[in-house]
């Protein structure tokens, strides 16, 4: 019997080639989309699961209140770790301080690598359950010890044993390799961590114990592992006021409140607003999960529509089978068998599509995913997924076609009637509703990105290059480097700063000003810069002037941005001053706001101090008269002479700024692709429906043509039904799209709106696409010779 079902199913596929190609092609595209999205979702939800202690690890975060606004910080004061061990030892298995990962130079003889690393307390490798290939994780108790990732050790030492070998860090400190750990997967927070250094060395080098206000600024990441069966929320309440108890009354006005962020939420629930978690990337997991389901549903609808549309063709077959004894259940099995055959063929095609698309998809998504060919779980999921799809696609046709009465069918009085097409029309409306929502949503995402990109940046990015400072040689040879590059015409300006203008290097609570509200804690950005910084980046002043070598008093002066002037509520900033840890600085200039954080958020208040050796960033303005390639070559040559110990590394500031849009652009590209595929699947279904309707009404068209109907009249006759369905879809989709996209935009402080014209343009586009899809079959039918269509059967 099964063989009979499959034979009939195959014959039907061969007999109706166009419909079969539409069904299988649509299903294959829909299943491929679901597979790609499933791989992406799996990668997202499995983030950080590499760590054995995944469910018991948390990071200590803090909320601070400033002028009624609550902000969440990933950084806490360094003395907090000791207090946590002392006062809450029964709640934690481990408490570990760590720096945020950053780049350092690792040198071995002639080999120099720029690698990302962090300094951790000795319990860090065990807390994160690093797979130690050589040595032990707690070896970093020794201040001179360092742990290397396997790939970094391979690059430095090849096949030689790295244990006990001495490296140089940032051309200053000698460190000894005390262990090698397996590289962390890409879908972990610490991915790309090339080495781990000793916390004791970091604390000594940066003189943490000598800080003026050790409980003031948040400068370290603090990780904890809870005891078994501990509740994160209850422990958060216990530690909530631990920092507050150690602050002076002035600083305590910020009401810092500590809490635990479990590792399972680090990646997907990283967004905070008003001190509360508002989600994060989890919204995209849900978004694309829903998109995948709907894209597959669109393909399933095509199958249902085209199967039931041909009901009159299959009616006699059903009648004959019932007349010779087939039960309805056997007919249901037969139609399910046809559905299963189509789905299995589509599944094989979808695997090919996924394999072909994965390289591009990985590039857009920023992932390293692959089909898990050797995983039994994958094949179990794939087969189960195919059967579920077959059940969905085959259910309506199976029960509908098997319900025909054999007496009516065999007498020739069977007619499907007008109401029989109603479910198909509902499904077409559903298809276009989903497609239109996707189109509007994708357009809003793209408009939001363009809106933020059009926001005034506040300085000139053209030709602005940032060179990270890893060694002191750049500071020592600053004048020689600048002179050489000015003489050969490579640059026009050069300066140093704590960070490039796209970032705020750090914040301070040590700033006060006349009239400061004692209940307000200053959380203001601090940037140390050299002379000519303003000329180099091309900032603009709303009041006052830049630092100048002509004024010796500028060593006791500051420049603030407009956001800081507004935060301090200064009407005449140039007549005012600030106090920084008891020392008074005159305000000599106010710059127009420059975006120094997320382009979707408000500009952070910043105070700029004049310094001789600020820190981490060397900024150069390339001469526009010289080609970029030539300029970079000249800069590399000069730095190789003046700073040979540091590998040449540079970043264009405009490229770094563009990275701030990477998440949204990635989502926009994926959404655009999925919306396009949804439209493609819908159009395939429309093409098939139009083809069937033209075939079904071929005699009517012939008669109308004999009676004088024009081609345009016949095209209008065949197209208007589809246009009406699309119009209904637009009415349904518009408020749905507006509701969801308006809520999505509200998650950004700086955002565009859902413009009314989007719905008009989308409506026109949807109708045009529909008419273009059905016009081929409509015009073909209208141009056909009526003699052929009116011949006797």
Could you explain how this protein is built, in words?
It is elongated and about 105 Å long. Strands 17, 18, 19, 20, 21, 22, 23 and 24 form an eight-stranded mixed sheet that branches. Helix 10 packs across helix 11 and helix 13 packs across helix 22. The chain is α+β, with helices and mostly antiparallel strands and about 800 residues long. The mean pLDDT is about 80.
Q: Runs with pLDDT <50, length 5+?
A: none
Form type? elongated
First-last Cα distance: 34 Å
Question: Helix/strand/pairing class, anyone?
Answer: alpha+beta
Question: What's the mean pLDDT score?
Answer: 82
How many whole angstroms does the radius of gyration measure?
Answer: 34 Å
Structure summary, number of beta strands: 26
Helix content bin = 40-55%
Tell me about the largest β-sheet.
Answer: 8 strands, mixed
DSSP helical segment count: 24
Please render the helix and strand layout as text.
Layout lengths: L1 H14 L1 H29 L11 E10 L2 E5 L6 H8 L4 E7 L3 E7 L2 E10 L3 H4 L4 E4 L9 E5 H8 L8 E4 L3 E9 L13 E4 H7 L15 E6 L5 H8 L17 E6 L8 E3 L2 E4 L2 H28 L1 H13 L4 H38 L10 H26 L4 H6 L10 H32 L10 E5 L4 H4 L1 H10 L3 E7 L9 E2 L2 E2 L11 E6 L3 H5 L3 E4 L12 E5 H6 L9 E4 L2 E9 L14 E5 L6 E6 L5 H15 L8 E2 H6 L3 H35 L1 H9 L4 H35 L10 H28 L2 H5 L3
Helix pairs in contact: 1-10, 2-8, 2-10, 2-20, 8-11, 8-13, 8-20, 10-11, 13-20, 13-22, 13-23, 15-18, 20-23, 22-23
């Amino acid at each position: 019997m099964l063989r009979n079902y499959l034979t009939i199913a195959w014959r039907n596929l061969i007999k109706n080639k166009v419909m079969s190609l539409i069904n299988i092609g649509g299903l294959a595209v829909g299943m491929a989309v679901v597979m790609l999205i499933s791989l992406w979702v799996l990668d997202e939800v499995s983030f950080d699961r590499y760590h054995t202690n995944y469910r018991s690890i948390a990071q200590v975060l803090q909320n601070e209140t400033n002028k009624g606004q609550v902000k969440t910080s990933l950084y806490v004061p360094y003395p907090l770790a000791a207090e946590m061990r002392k006062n809450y030892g029964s709640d934690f298995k481990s408490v570990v301080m760590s720096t945020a990962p950053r780049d350092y130079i690792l040198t071995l003889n002639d080999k120099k690598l720029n690698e990302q690393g962090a300094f951790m307390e000795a319990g860090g490798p065990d807390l994160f359950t690093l797979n130690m290939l050589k040595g032990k994780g707690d070896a970093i108790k020794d201040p001179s010890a360092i742990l290397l990732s396997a790939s970094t050790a391979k690059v430095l030492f090849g096949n030689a044993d790295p244990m006990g070998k001495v490296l140089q860090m940032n051309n200053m400190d000698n460190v000894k390799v005390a262990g090698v750990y397996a590289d962390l997967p890409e879908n972990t927070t610490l991915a790309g961590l090339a080495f781990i250094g000793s916390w004791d060395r970091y604390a000594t080098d940066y003189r943490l114990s000598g800080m003026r206000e050790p409980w003031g600024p948040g400068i370290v990441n603090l990780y904890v592992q809870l005891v078994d069966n501990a509740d994160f929320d209850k422990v958060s309440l216990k530690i909530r006021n631990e920092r507050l108890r150690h602050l002076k009354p002035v600083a305590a006005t910020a009401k810092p409140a500590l809490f635990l962020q479990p590792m399972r939420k680090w990646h997907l629930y990283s967004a905070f607003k008003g001190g509360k978690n508002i989600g994060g990337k989890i919204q995209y997991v849900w978004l694309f999960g829903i998109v995948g389901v709907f894209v597959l549903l669109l393909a399933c609808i095509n199958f249902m529509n085209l199967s039931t549309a041909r009901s009159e063709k299959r009616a006699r077959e059903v009648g004959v089978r019932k007349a010779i004894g087939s039960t309805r259940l056997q007919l249901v099995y037969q139609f399910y068998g046809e559905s299963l055959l189509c789905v299995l063929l589509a599944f094989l095609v979808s695997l090919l599509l996924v394999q072909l698309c994965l390289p591009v998809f990985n590039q857009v998504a920023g992932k390293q995913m692959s089909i898990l060919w050797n995983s039994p779980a994958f094949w179990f999921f794939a087969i189960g997924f195919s059967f579920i799809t077959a059940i969905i696609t085959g259910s309506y046709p199976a029960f509908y076609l098997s319900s025909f009465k054999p007496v009516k069918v065999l007498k020739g009085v069977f007619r499907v009637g007008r109401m029989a097409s109603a479910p198909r029309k509902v499904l077409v409306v559903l298809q276009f509703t989903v497609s239109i929502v996707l189109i509007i949503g994708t357009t809003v995402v793209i408009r939001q990105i363009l809106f933020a990109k059009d926001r005034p940046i506040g300085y000139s990015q053209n030709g602005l290059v940032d060179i990270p400072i890893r060694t002191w040689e750049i500071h020592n040879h600053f004048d020689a480097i600048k002179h050489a590059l000015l003489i050969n015409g490579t640059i026009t300006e050069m300066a140093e700063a704590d960070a490039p203008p796209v970032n705020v290097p750090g914040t301070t609570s040590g700033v006060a000003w006349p009239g400061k509200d004692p209940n307000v804690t200053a959380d203001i950005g601090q940037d140390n810069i050299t002379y000519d910084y303003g000329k180099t980046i091309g900032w603009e002043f709303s009041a006052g002037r830049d630092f100048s070598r002509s004024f010796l008093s500028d060593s006791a002066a500051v420049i603030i941005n407009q956001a800081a002037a507004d935060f301090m509520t200064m009407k005449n900033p140039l007549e005012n001053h600030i106090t920084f840890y008891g020392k008074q600085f005159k305000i000599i200039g106010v710059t127009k706001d420059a975006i120094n954080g997320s382009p979707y958020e408000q500009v952070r208040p910043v105070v700029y101090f004049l310094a001789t050796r600020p820190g981490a960033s060397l900024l150069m303005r390339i001469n526009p008269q010289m080609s970029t390639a030539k300029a970079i070559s000249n800069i590399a040559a000069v730095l190789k002479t003046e700073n040979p110990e540091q590998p040449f590394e540079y970043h264009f500031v405009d490229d770094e700024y563009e990275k701030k849009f990477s998440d949204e652009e990635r989502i926009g590209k994926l959404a655009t692709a999925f919306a396009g595929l949804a439209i493609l699947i819908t159009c395939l279904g429309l093409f098939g429906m139009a083809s069937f309707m033209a075939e079904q009404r071929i005699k009517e068209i012939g008669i109308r043509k004999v009676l004088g109907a024009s081609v345009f009249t016949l095209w209008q006759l065949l197209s208007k039904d589809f246009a009406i369905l699309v119009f209904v879809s637009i009415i349904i989709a518009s408020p749905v799209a507006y509701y969801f996209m308006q809520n999505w935009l509200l998650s950004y402080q700086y955002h565009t709106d859902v413009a009314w014209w989007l719905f008009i343009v989308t409506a026109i586009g949807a109708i045009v696409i529909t008419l273009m899809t059905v016009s081929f079959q409509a015009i073909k039918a209208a141009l056909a010779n009526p003699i052929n269509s009116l011949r006797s059967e």
